Amino acid sequence: MHELAITRNIVAIVAERAEGRAVRRVRLEVGALSGVVPEAIRFCFDVVARGTVLEGAELEIIDVPGRGRCRACGEDVALEGLIGRCACGSSALDIIAGEELKIKDMELDMATNVETA
Amino acid sequence: MTLEAAILEKNDRLAAENRAWLAGREVLAVNLVSSPGAGKTALLERTIRDLGGELSIAVIEGDQSTTRDAERIRNAGARSVQINTGAGCHLEADMVRAALRELRPEPGTLVMIENVGNLVCPAMFDLGEGARVAILSVAEGEDKPIKYPHMFRSCDLMIVTKTDLLPHVDFDLDTCLAHARSVNPDIATLALSSRSGEGLEGWYDWLRAQCANLSAAAFA
Q1: Nearest to B126 by CA among B155, B159, B105, B100
Q2: Residues above pLDDT 70, as percent of chain B
Q3: In the predicted model, what is the mean pLDDT of residues B106-125?
Q4: The predicted structure's pLDDT at residue A110
Q5: Which of A28, A70, B40, B138 has the smallest set of CB atoms within 10 Å of its CB?
Q6: Does some domain include residue B220?
Q7: Interface of chain B toward chain A, CB-CB under 8 angstroms
Q8: What pLDDT does B214 receive?
Q9: Under an 8 A CB cutoff, do B185 and A92 touch?
Q10: Is residue A85 part of a domain?
Q11: Nearest to A2 among B9, B89, B153 (CB)
Q12: CB contact under 8 A, B150 and A91
């Protein structure tokens, strides 16, 4: 259940950047090949956010599809998992997209500020 | 407000610090990952007994609880530090940093980091190691690399252990190696038995080569 550790990191990073202001919404980019289950992050998020400036914030997760590039012929291949095969027959692929695991942006509640929070 | 922040930035930063600290001391750290019971500790005990006179070896032991493995390592003749992760299912870079401070490895030491037995979570957490090694026993089944592709993708070497049991189990070594290469075309592979000693020379040669690369890099 590494999603718990990952969600703690998300909340810590966002809380630090929010500098005491309440957070309304957080957007993540999670790649299909990142090894993280978006549903598990959602499951952990409300619990981890409780008692922080993220409490009650909406969590949006943008899925990033996986793509590989064939080492044999250079073609790009859509990847649903880490195991794929190019149309040319080769399975030696370098991953070029889908490993993203980042916080894209956040929306702050401008009614609060550092002094009143 | 745009953040564009890597979620694992803190762990990655601490891992980079560990890597620089280790390189500055010419210490090679190897992160050993496997499912529980694959034979990580048995392989370490045998390695310490066989190579202890040639290489200085120290071990960081990660387990949810108990100091049993650290005691086994000490009985085999190497220094060890135990990390207990409690509910945690993997080691993180800050835990390894604290363990390295306690261990204070001399220059030239080979530090083996025995991760928590788990083929899922440790894949995502860089510890600052010089190499990552997956250990898979023949008793577990040849399809582990494709069932846990993230882990095998992240490794430099896969070791198939307990080969002395091959006559007693349905495990096709060639199929297992092909599965590993299908998730990671660059992975190196070895097969051995810590009990019978079969194949151990290949593992020792791999370790010697990693140590030699590290000292060559230090003089480059």
Answers
A1: B155
A2: 99
A3: 94
A4: 80
A5: A70
A6: no
A7: 1-11, 88-90, 92, 120-121, 123-125, 146, 149-150, 153, 181-183, 185
A8: 83
A9: yes
A10: no
A11: B89
A12: no
Number of structural domains in chain B? 1
Q: Within a domain: residue A22?
A: yes
d(C-alpha B139, C-alpha B53), whole Å:
31
CATH number at residue A27: 3.30.2320.50
Average pLDDT over residues B38-55: 95
Write the pLDDT tens digit of every residue in B159-168.
999 999 999 9
Those residues whose C-beta lies under 8 Å from the C-beta of residue B203, and which sit 6 or more positions away, are B43, B47, B159, B190, B192
Mean pLDDT of chain B: 94
ipTM: 0.84
Domain count for chain A: 1
Q: Where residue A117 falls among pLDDT bands split at 50, 70, 90?
A: very low
A-chain CB neighbours of B4 within 8 Å are 102-105
Give the 3-state secondary structure of B71-124: HHHHHHCCEEEEEECCCCCCCCHHHHHHHHHHHCCCCCCEEEEECCCCCCHHHH
Residue B5 to residue A101, Cβ atoms within 8 A:
no
Q: What are phi and psi of B109, to 5 degrees?
A: -70, 145
List CB contacts (< 8 A) between B146 and chain A: 83
Among all chains, which residue has been given the structure tokens 């089944």?
A: B141
